[in-house]
Amino acid sequence: MHPILFRVPLPVWTVPLLWVFLIAAGIAFAGAIGLLIGKNKPGAAAAGVAGVVLAVLASQFKEQTYTLGPIPIYSYGVMLGLSLVVGWYLTLGLAERDGLPKETMANCYVVTALAAVLGSRVLYILTNLDEFDSFGAMFDIRRGGLVAYGGFLGGFLGSYLFLRSHRLPLLPWADVAVPSLASGLMITRIGCYLFGCDFGRPLGETAPAWLKKLGTFPHWADGTLDHGSGSPAWVQHVKERGLDPASEASLAVHPTQIYESLVGAGLLALLLLARRRQRFRGEIFLLFTFSYGVCRYLLELLRDDAERGSIPPTLPEHVLLPAGLLVFAVAYAIGFSRVIRNDVARKVTQALAFVPAVALYLALKPETFGASTALQYSTSQAVALATGLAASIAFAIYYKAALDHPEQAMALNLPQSQPAADDEGDDEDEDEDEDDAPGDGDDEEGAPSEKRGAKAKAGDEASRGKRGSAKDGGRATARERGAAAEAPDTTGEA
Question: N or C: the chain end with fewer CB closer than 10 Å?
Fold first, then answer.
């Protein structure tokens, strides 16, 4: 694997930190003087305080140096950046297609992406506090250390706060944003694979050779990274599974990173197809939440890395793990199975949803009582269960509302600014109609279209003809009133 794709060649240069902080302090003091001359006292005070802080830091680091050299470009960081770029174009393209304000959605994407990275890092830190030996190490994400569900929750919160401040609805944005989450899974998990983190349990002896090759992670050469001497799988197998430290590679494990990358590709295709038959705003978001929850729960059964965290209760594995599948089966029955309109087919799928839970229970059930291994849910499994169940309940509510009021289910409910201008235009059209001669109705019905000019579209012509007939009263002929009655009413289509 390749945790570092390449290094940017730079000459080795040792920099005294004392001079770095002194130069920065000098710039801050110069800025303070400039702001003071410009009579910006608050800004001058802030710059002055910054200069003092930097000067104090210079005194603290006067004996230390920092060595600059070739800059490593980490595979995970590259894949993370690529996923953000792909997500940008995908999200904004779907937003424009759905009629959402593109500029506002672009700003929302930036806020969401930053909140997602922050949330994924925070959840990783909370579940792996013993891994960090310094406060600064908590902010180094170049070598990985992000939890997908933390990113989803952080991005959701960031989107909600941003859209609420702009008085925009959340669900239309969520529908166009979740396909980029699926594409992000597809891309970033390749970065995880190249680094060697998020690996699975050891493969059995009967596993195919190509799968064993994919699931073997190497012992890195000394100096590959600043810390550690091998891929995470190799290190864990040496410590916990008795692997010979002289081994050049880890044990063959399930390449769960590739599995989840394929899950991301499948979810992306599913969401884009589901958009063609979308029934209500929020449906795509809820579909992703439930589907990814099921897939992530199952993938966690194969994961073996120690950096996942755990959440009580502690129960025998033949009880705990099937119970999670039972929750998903109930969630499907009360929620997403409603899209199947045929009663027989729906009941069949509801019954089949319980089969995996029963099968897993029978597979894990020990031969003797009390011989089962006690487990806890991983952090991601617990979040998957909670969000999957919540998504199913919300789906049932919104789906019923969509059946009762289909005309409202797909409404964007954006702040209305354009209709006011449209109303003014209608008033002007009415004034023009009042000035028309009594015979204008005949002209509108039979005269060539060029006599009408470019005043309005065909739908507006019919609407004005209708209003003109009403204003003319007794002057209108029976034929004019008949033509107006047959004209389509466009005033309620918006």
Answer: C
